[in-house]
Specification:
Elements (H helix, E strand, L loop, with lengths): L12 E11 L2 E5 L5 E5 L2 H5 L5 E11 L11 H6 L1 E13 L8
Length: 102
Amino acid sequence: MDLVRQSTRGANESTIQGCLSGSAGSYMLADKSGKTYRLEGDPSKLSAHVGHEVRVTGTESTAATSGSQAGTTTGATTAEAKTQFNVTKVEHVASTCSTAQK
């Protein structure tokens, strides 16, 4: 499994590896299992690695995006609920993604 969880710097920090996509401050990371994370962090660190396989370190929290409300069952809201990952460190792994989604 490519989801790597390590107790590195802080008790709540973990590391995940996958394919980075997105632009203009809206970045996503998909691991080999297909789990998608909405990344929050320094855009200058993330933008340079779009389309690459990266390893990011930070803290994870489940968050709903852009105004969706808990208990709402519309398809759009459900699809937008993703795991948010607050990035503190980005490591380049490869110039191409080997985490192709099915």
